Amino acid sequence: MSGGLGVPKLSEVSVGDQIGSTTIHLTRADLVRYADASGDQNPIHQSDEVARSVGLPGVIAHGMLTMGAAVRVVVDWCGDPGAIVDYGTRFTGQVPVDAETGADLEVSAVVGAVDAEAGTVRVDVSATCGGSRVLGRARAVVRLPA
């Protein structure tokens, strides 16, 4: 049922197939590590006081951290991050990260389209936090073996 090493074959994939779901727990320490790695030291990602002063509920996760964490379910399914040839999203909400409890990002993904001629599959990714959508039109195009 796979193209070797767990990689799905294009012929085994159908529109509507659930490819996976996961919960990603984020903590304030994760935000600090991401800020250091990315260079995005915006204080809304580290200081409740600053975040609230600009109308946010408190510290929020970086959008690109959220986007990158969400695509992990696609990488786990296809087995190769290099198989993802396109990925994009719209940010529709924030991921507030509580100092004590952190935040849970709920991610799931389904096959939205199969293009046999191109050898690709479009995967539609859903990401929510606290029951609210945080990513809209999150889509990854994945090249799969025939």
Keywords:
146 residues, Thiol Ester Dehydrase, Chain A, alpha+beta, 22% helix, 4 helices, 5 strands
Layout: helices, strands, pairs:
Elements: E1 18-26, H1 28-38, H2 48-53, H3 63-70, H4 72-78, E2 84-91, E3 103-115, E4 120-129, E5 132-143
Antiparallel strand pairs: 1-3, 2-5, 3-4, 4-5
Family: Belongs to the enoyl-CoA hydratase/isomerase family.
GO molecular function, one term: fatty acid synthase activity
Pfam family, one: MaoC_dehydratas
Summarize the entry for a quick read.
The chain has helices spanning 28-38, 48-53, 63-70, 72-78, and strands at residues 18-26, 84-91, 103-115, 120-129, 132-143. The protein has a domain at 10-26 and 62-143: Thiol Ester Dehydrase, Chain A, CATH 3.10.129.10.
Can you give a write-up of this model?
With 146 residues, the chain is of the alpha+beta class. The protein has a domain at 10-26 and 62-143: Thiol Ester Dehydrase, Chain A, CATH 3.10.129. It has 4 helices and 5 strands, in the order βααααββββ. Strands 1-3-4-5-2 form a 5-stranded antiparallel sheet. Strand 4 (120-129) and strand 5 (132-143) form a beta hairpin. The model has no long low-confidence stretch (mean pLDDT 95). GO terms for molecular function: fatty acid synthase activity. Residues 21-125 form the MaoC-like domain. Belongs to the enoyl-CoA hydratase/isomerase family.
